């Protein structure tokens, strides 16, 4: 299949592009490079030996999307990964998040449907689940638009838009993939996560401590109601996550379908630090800090539906993720800013 990857030069996008190319599909990457580098797209071609043309442009702009279809189409599917995703930042810049994360979907749908698109895969998030009593979250667990932050709200709003569009577009297959916590990197170390500035997320922060650019890991609270008192999350290796996109795309059927992409096996903050220490063979300096506002004690999924309907199950572990993250980090101490 020929696939347009909106946000395709990003962390999830590049790994998904590699998985698609390795599976024999064709890709075109559309990215505004606001959170990545054109080098990332070159690395996709280096890993796969196949073309991964990059169009530098704004997925919110209909004319840009139309130009991509004119120059590189037709496309069998759009995989929409183009979004701002920092929970904390979204509480400070709600309009930036709602505008970017919703307008991009509107533009991609308008142009795609005009051009006869039959499949739309949407990058969503496990943070749309709103009731901790439902843990482990299944696709039927309670969701809400009234979530703790504009980022998660924008994702749930997108899901509602897509569900309503699918309801009146009989031959369109909409597949919503709710990610939990993506971690790790491609084993080659050529592509990986490259957050700008001080990382918000745990694994990039731990990795920067390991490589020496940050001094210690701050553990945000050790008094949660969890086995070791630190937060529990469902860390999914980005290579497993990418594989989930391939099978979801290949098995898409007309209608609206939602799948959790997670391991179903939560790991604590201290567990992640311990796994990273195993990967690098030494201890890391840590310090217990106050809880981070907005954090929940635990979030993880029941991935049974993706296994049952897509034949997809995470294969890689938190140790694999730490090993692969460290390969990426040591090969690219400055990320893509070579
Ligand atoms: C994980 C755990 C922290 C940093 C993120 C994204 C969200 C979604 C899921 C896409 C928590 C703790 C963290 C640190 C710490 N992604 N922590 N010290 O908050 O689960 O959500 O992934 O949809 O958009 O924000 O991930 O990596 O920030 O935190 O102790 O320096 O690590 O308290 O328990 P989170 P995270």
TrEMBL record:
<dbReference type="GO" id="GO:0005829">
    <property type="term" value="C:cytosol"/>
</dbReference>
<dbReference type="InterPro" id="IPR005886">
    <property type="entry name" value="UDP_G4E"/>
</dbReference>
<dbReference type="InterPro" id="IPR001509">
    <property type="entry name" value="Epimerase_deHydtase"/>
</dbReference>
<feature type="domain" description="NAD-dependent epimerase/dehydratase">
    <location>
        <begin position="3"/>
        <end position="262"/>
    </location>
</feature>
<comment type="pathway">
    <text>Carbohydrate metabolism; galactose metabolism.</text>
</comment>
<comment type="subunit">
    <text>Homodimer.</text>
</comment>
<dbReference type="GO" id="GO:0003978">
    <property type="term" value="F:UDP-glucose 4-epimerase activity"/>
</dbReference>
<dbReference type="Pfam" id="PF01370">
    <property type="entry name" value="Epimerase"/>
</dbReference>
<dbReference type="GO" id="GO:0006012">
    <property type="term" value="P:galactose metabolic process"/>
</dbReference>
<keyword id="KW-0520">NAD</keyword>
<keyword id="KW-0299">Galactose metabolism</keyword>
<keyword id="KW-0413">Isomerase</keyword>
<comment type="similarity">
    <text>Belongs to the NAD(P)-dependent epimerase/dehydratase family.</text>
</comment>
<dbReference type="InterPro" id="IPR036291">
    <property type="entry name" value="NAD(P)-bd_dom_sf"/>
</dbReference>
<protein>
    <recommendedName>
        <fullName>UDP-glucose 4-epimerase</fullName>
        <ecNumber>5.1.3.2</ecNumber>
    </recommendedName>
</protein>
<keyword id="KW-0119">Carbohydrate metabolism</keyword>
């Amino acid at each position: 299949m020929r696939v347009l990857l909106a946000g395709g030069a990003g962390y999830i996008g590049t790994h998904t592009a590699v998985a698609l190319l390795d599976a024999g599909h064709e890709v075109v990457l559309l990215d505004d490079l606001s959170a990545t580098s054109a080098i990332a797209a070159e690395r996709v071609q280096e890993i796969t030996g196949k073309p991964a043309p990059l169009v530098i442009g704004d997925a919110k702009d209909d004319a840009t999307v139309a130009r991509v279809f004119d120059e590189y189409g037709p496309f069998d599917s759009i995989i929409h990964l183009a979004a701002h995703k920092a929970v904390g930042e979204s509480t400070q810049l709600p309009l930036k998040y709602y505008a970017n994360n919703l307008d991009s979907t509107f533009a991609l749908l308008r142009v795609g449907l005009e051009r006869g698109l039959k499949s739309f895969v949407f990058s969503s998030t496990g943070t749309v689940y709103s009731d901790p009593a439902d843990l482990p979250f299944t696709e039927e667990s309670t969701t809400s638009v009234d979530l703790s932050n504009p980022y998660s709200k924008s994702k749930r709003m997108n899901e509602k838009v897509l569900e309503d569009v699918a309801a009146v577009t009989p031959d369109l297959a909409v597949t919503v993939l709710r990610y939990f916590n993506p971690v790790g990197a491609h084993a080659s170390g050529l592509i990986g996560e490259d957050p700008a500035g001080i990382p918000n997320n745990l694994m990039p922060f731990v990795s920067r401590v390991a490589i020496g650019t940050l001094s210690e890991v701050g553990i945000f609270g050790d008094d949660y109601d969890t086995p070791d008192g630190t937060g529990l999350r469902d860390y999914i290796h980005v290579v497993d996550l990418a594989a989930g996109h391939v099978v979801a795309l290949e098995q898409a059927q007309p209608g609206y379908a939602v799948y959790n992409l997670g391991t179903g096996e939560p790991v604590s903050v201290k567990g992640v630090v311990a796994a990273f220490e195993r990967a690098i063979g030494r201890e890391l300096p840590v310090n217990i800090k106050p809880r981070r506002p907005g954090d929940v004690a635990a979030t993880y999924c029941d991935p049974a539906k993706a296994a049952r309907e897509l034949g997809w199950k995470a294969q890689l572990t938190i140790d694999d993720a730490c090993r692969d993250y460290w390969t990426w980090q040591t090969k690219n101490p400055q990320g893509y800013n070579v």
